[in-house]
Amino acid sequence: MLNFSKINVISIYLIFIVISVFSILNFQKAEKFPIDKKVNLGLDLQGGSYLLLEINSDTLIEEKIQSKVIPLKKLLKDNNLNYSNFKINKKTLNFQIDNVDTFELVFFSKKNNIVNPFIDNYRSFELDYKKSNTNEIEVSFSKFGLLTINNSALKQSIEIVRRRIDDVGTKEPTILQRGEKRILVELPGLKDPDRIKKLLGKTAQLNFRLVNNNTEFGVDELASETGEMLKISKRIVMSGENLIDAQPSIQNQENEPTVSFTLDRLGAQKFGRATTDNVGKRLAIILDGKIISAPNINEPITSGSGVISGNFTFQEATDLALLLRSGALPTPLDIVEERTVGPDLGEDSIKSGLTSLIVGFLLVIIFMFYKYKIFGLVANTALVANLLMLIGVLTILEATLTLPGIAGIILTVGMAVDANVLIFERIKEELKTEKSIIHAFDSGYSKAKITVLDANITTLIAAVILFVFGSGPVKGFAITLGIGIITTLFTAYFLARHLTSIIVLKNKNKEVKI
Amino acid sequence: MIGNINFVSSFKKANIVSITVFIISILFILFKGLNYGIDFKGGTLIELRTDTSTKASSIRNSLNSMNLGDINVKKFGKDGDYLIKVEQKNIKNSDLIPSIKKTLKNNLNSEIDFRRVENVGPKVSAELLESSIIAISLALAAMLFYIWVRFEWQFSVGSIIALLHDVVITLGLFSLLSLEINLSIIAAVLTIVGYSMNDTVVIYDRIRENLLKYSKISISDVSNLSINETLARTIITSVTTLLALLSIYILGGEILRGFSFAMILGVIIGTYSSIFVASPILKFFKVSSKTLEKDEQRIEP
Question: Is residue A356 domain-resident?
Fold first, then answer.
């Protein structure tokens, strides 16, 4: 175990140097070096906000199931299926039917099925039905139907969340899908996420609807901005989809902050027609079911642009414009998890993390030197090399360093010496019975090998499981712990062994104490 | 090497102590319960820095007016640093946190720096708890499997009992001291599992080697010899690990305190269990050189 071929020695030190060089990249100030890699600081160290959003698709599913009512009734009629007791529930449609077999046949027909299309991706129909004993049929979305709805709502939401966050202008936001219903948002450096939370908390569905008593389309009774109850027609004159731009503006006369909007061609046509036909009436501007304002239509607006007023502050007008520009969310988003760390706490954490790293490192080094003298120096050299390589690997992977991650590094320092301690203690035992020093060292290394491997693999298993199941900062801990084990094995079995061999071979005729 | 200590003679006493402490820990966990943090219970945590003159009671009073359920305010490190925990019930995050901030700003006559805000909804906290339990169970199962592959089933059972011993007693102590269980404590528990296993494996490895070397000696004597032979290593590694952990505990700041405390407990308990729990179990299963014979070739390649 003490013989190294030249190629071995060269490759050991080459690997060590190449990996360690990467650790230095973290300390360069100007980016002179061609490779720009750095360890990322986690949100808990640089400060920032982590938000986990969940789409709330209940209302969306309600709307979608309602949209099936007319086609479903038509399907039943076209196939001469008599139904009774048709009921629309929140997530299901229920009705009585006589001929269930025929129903099943048309309901699950793959050809031109408008009511219940076949989703090729999942090899499943969009809807499913259950039958009770009394021939009552309950139609609801199938598992994959729900998945499709959630998926498309989620994809759309991610897009809109991204637009809104980009518009606010935070640096390097991360926006990712998490599972079937969630969006992960990371906003580094953001001190107060309240404004962004407010912006993400609104679906921003904008409608223009006429105020009148005409019940042809049904009416909703809503409170206006002044508290007056107004009857609002359910018919939507125009919605936010037709907006191509919105900007905050100041109305000259009263210096009042407002939002000016520009419509696309279709929107301009719709808006022009509605305002021409209804001069003198009031047009309610409704955002997320609440009236912003309900001004009088004084004259036809055919220019394709307009102004929304509603006693805004300038900040409110800016935010509303932003929301309208970015488009409406398909469903409301709930914030199900938030973790925000202020920048000064992050700085404090880095400071205390580094202090404890340095102190822990020094304590271990002093102890090892006291315990093993010259071989303690070998172990300590291996420890320094270990630390450099660990940081080097983290840099190459551009891993994220968190506060628990720093704790993982310190722990690695404490545990890394174990491999060398195992070997040295083994050699001590061998020296008792073995006369030849070289043989004693040799068999010490080979006998300790299995133990060192076994012992480290168990810790590695724990680190891998922690990485898979852990979240955020804990993952950072798992990464440093896991990589630390691998660099520990390398430094103990290659670097330290080579250094030991140099010492032993030089002193082979003298007595070597360990 | 450290002198020849007779560990086996104290196995019986140690086992009685271990079993008693283990049972008391389970009773504590079952009846006193664990003090779950917001990660697992849901709720809101706010760390803030105010003037050193601000009192915890004035923070508590101003929040009490909001009817937020259980509120816990405690000093966190320096004077004027406080940690507030609010047991939140079905209030939306986007409404709750701004209103808490506003109330505090209005009621305390001091600059407030909100250093940390964490809010975990009930669904997410339930999921985090579930995945933590899965992670710990999976880690134990993986260890069981690894040792079973590398050694015999008796070793595998022995090491798992030692691990359960460590995890349960660590959690029992957390229950006794009412310390908070959060995600970083779970990370600590998993690391303890790794560390304790590491320690057990070193002793088991030596027991296996000595069983093959001295096939005539009883398992008690082989255990004693092996523990003694590896004792120096056991102590040195524990010392270096504890040095590193103490450094985190004392200098690493408030956030890492719970984590490093759990790890310190775990390292001490884990070192103890490798000697006084894992080894006696081999004697209990009457492990001898014969147990190893059938696998001899695989072990010594």
Answer: yes
Same domain, A376 and A502: yes
Here the tokens at position B243 are: 């040095």
Please indicate, yes or no, if residue A73 is contained in any of the structural domains. Answer: yes
Of A341, A407, A469, the CB nearest to B248: A407
Tell me, yes or no, whether B196 and B281 share the same domain: yes
> Which range marks the domain in which residue A93 is found?
58-146
A353 touches chain B (CB under 8 A): yes
Q: Final residue of a domain: which of A146, A166, A189? A: A146
Asked whether residue B197 falls in the same domain as residue B65, the answer is no
The amino acid occupying position A46 is Q
What residues of A are in contact with residue B143 (Cβ under 8 Å)? Answer: 458, 461-462
Kindly state whether residue A333 falls inside one of the protein's structural domains.
Answer: no
Task: Pick the last residue of a domain from B103, B120, B137.
Answer: B120
**Domain identity same for A137 and A37:** no
Q: Cβ–Cβ of A466/B135 closer than 8 Å?
A: yes
Which of A146, A171, A195 terminates a domain? The answer is A146
Domain count, chain B: 2
Contact status, residue A311 vs residue A236, Cβ threshold 8 Å:
no
Measured between CA atoms, the residue of chain A closest to residue B146 is A458
Nearest-CB residue to B187 (from A454, A461, A474) = A474
Question: Total structural domains in chain A?
Answer: 3
Mark yes or no for CB contact B142/A459 under 8 Å. no
Domain that holds residue B70: 43-120
pTM listed for this prediction:
0.86
pLDDT per residue as tens digits for the range A222-272: 888 788 888 888 888 888 888 999 999 988 777 889 999 999 999 999 999
Q: Is A180 on the interface with B (CB under 8 A)?
A: no
Contacts of A48 (CB under 8 A, 6+ apart): A186, A187, A188, A189, A190, A340, A341, A346
Q: Residue type for B173, please?
A: L
Q: Mutation test of the interface with chain B: which of A474, A477, A488, A513, choosing the one with the most B Cβ atoms within 10 A? A: A474
Phi, psi (degrees; rounded to nearest 5) at A436? -75, 125
Query: Residue B29 is encoded by which pair of tokens?
Result: 């966990």
Q: How far apart are CA A260 and CA A272, in angstroms?
A: 16
Which residue from A429, A447, A454 is facing B201, i.e. has the nearest CB? A454
**ipTM for this model:** 0.90
Which residues on chain A are in Cβ contact (under 8 Å) with B263? 411
At residue A419, φ and ψ (nearest 5 deg) are: -60, -45
Q: Is B192 exposed, middle or buried (0-12, 13-18, 19+ CB in 10 A)?
A: buried
Q: Which residues between 34 and 73 in chain A have a beta carbon less than 8 angstroms from any beta carbon of chain B?
A: 44, 52, 54
Residues of A in contact with B195 (CB under 8 A): 415, 459
Whether A352 and A245 map to the same domain: the answer is: no
Written as one letter, the residue type at B111 is: E
Q: CA A236, CA A245: separation in Å to the nearest integer?
A: 20
Asked whether residue A472 falls in the same domain as residue A391, the answer is yes
Rounded Cα–Cα distance for residues A49 and B117 (Å): 9
The answer to whether the Cβ–Cβ distance between B116 and A345 falls below 8 Å is yes
What's the CATH number where B68 sits?
3.30.70.3400
E strand or H helix at B130, and its extent? helix B122-150
pLDDT in tens, chain B (301 residues): 445 889 988 999 999 999 999 999 999 999 999 999 999 999 999 999 998 888 888 899 888 888 888 889 999 988 889 999 998 666 777 788 888 998 998 888 888 999 999 999 999 999 999 998 998 899 899 988 999 998 989 999 999 999 999 999 999 999 999 999 999 898 899 889 889 999 999 999 999 999 999 888 889 999 999 999 999 999 999 999 999 999 999 999 999 999 999 999 999 999 999 999 999 999 898 888 887 765 544 544 4
In a domain, A104, yes or no: yes
Among the partner-chain residues B94, B117, B201, the one whose CB lies closest to the CB of A340 is B117
Residues of A in contact with B184 (CB under 8 A): 404, 473-474, 477
Residue A358 CB neighbours (<10 A): 13
